[in-house]
Amino acid sequence: MDTPVVLLAEDEPDIVRLVTYILRREGFAVRTVTTGREAVDAVRQEKVDLVLLDIMLPELNGYGVCEVLRDDPLTRHIPIVVMSARAQAREVERGLEAGAVSYITKPFEPAQLGEQIRAALTAATGGRATSGAGDGLPR
Amino acid sequence: MTDTLQTLVQAFDRMAATYELMARRLAGQIEQLEAERTGLRAQLSELSQHQTALLRSNQDLARLTADLSGQVTSLARRAEEATRQDQLKSELLATVSHELRTPLTSIKGALSVLLGEDPPAPEIRAEFLGIAHQNVERVMRLVANFLNLTRIEAGQIGIVPRALDLAEVLTAAVERMRGLAAERRVRLELEPPRGPLPLTGDPEMLESVFSNLLDNAVKFSPEGASVVVGVGADPRTLTVQVRDQGPGIPPEEVPRVFERFFRGREAAAARRVPGTGLGLHISKAIVEAHGGRIGVESRVGEGSTFTVTLPREARGPAA
Known about the structure:
The complex is a heterodimer of chains A (139) and B (319). Chain A is an alpha/beta fold.
């Protein structure tokens, strides 16, 4: 199976740097966007196996992105993991209701990040190779 | 004939007596009526006085009601204000706690990687240590802002004035920002002052003012832009200007930028700029506690210039 591509939607540069490093070390390819709009466009146009999404994004927040992707039949199969500094149960529920498959609270343990993403990918593909919504050309 | 005359005279006498009696009775009745009339007049006068007294009472009551009404309104407003303050405080706590999680995430992430089983290559180690360090500075700024805010709220913005060199304060604030500026690819320049800039004031507080101004300037600047700090001096005052080439502040927002919690549309909408809306509010309080002034000039699409004027001798807040 080719290297799974994680789309990271996060606008804090330090966090982008760290998450990218951690995920690449875990064997994922990472593509970064900084707004909700860009996230939706990237999922629709490129090969994306999982979306790692910060809730607080400019131009369409994380919940909005979840809903748009879930409502689109071409993208609804792609697992979404949301990240948020808000730890309350209510926020977690909201994320899961909007279509996320799991929720990570900041600050997070890097090891935990890798595990949750792998778990989400496995659950989504059932072990098969994924096919994204795009044309499979490398970014 | 004499009998007839006598009878007539007697009859007339009797008639006269009767008329006299009638006249006396009438006179008596008139007297009585007059007495009643006087009595009624007295009653009328009394009633009139009562009415005047009642009218006055009514007016007093009306005034009292208006007063009470006013007090109720004012109490209601104060209760509303107290509730609003409470809400703001809760929101502030939630915001600060939320804002802190972001740099803490970076610190924790960076240190976990550095301490983990698979330590990275030396250049990456240096980079991640830098990330941890910058974000510690960010946490310190947030906490300082929060503490200053609670002090301002309690009316205790105590500055501890001593002799200082403003050039040193500015240099320290600029150095603190170098990391963030480099990361955002923003050029940060301090126009070198021509010598020391002696001033009486609180160096920590003043440094936090310039850190806030620089933090804003860098956060809002696009890549490749410059943030320039300039200083002017005259015998009695020192002036510091922080100029950026960011998006600028729309004219209708300019009067509000120093309000507590105010965050402009740019911050909310465009590139998400982290912040609690407190920095400028606190900076203004600190500058004014030094007897100084802070202001901003801005043009949308071109940038903003924040100007801080400080008296060389720290006075109390300007009258």
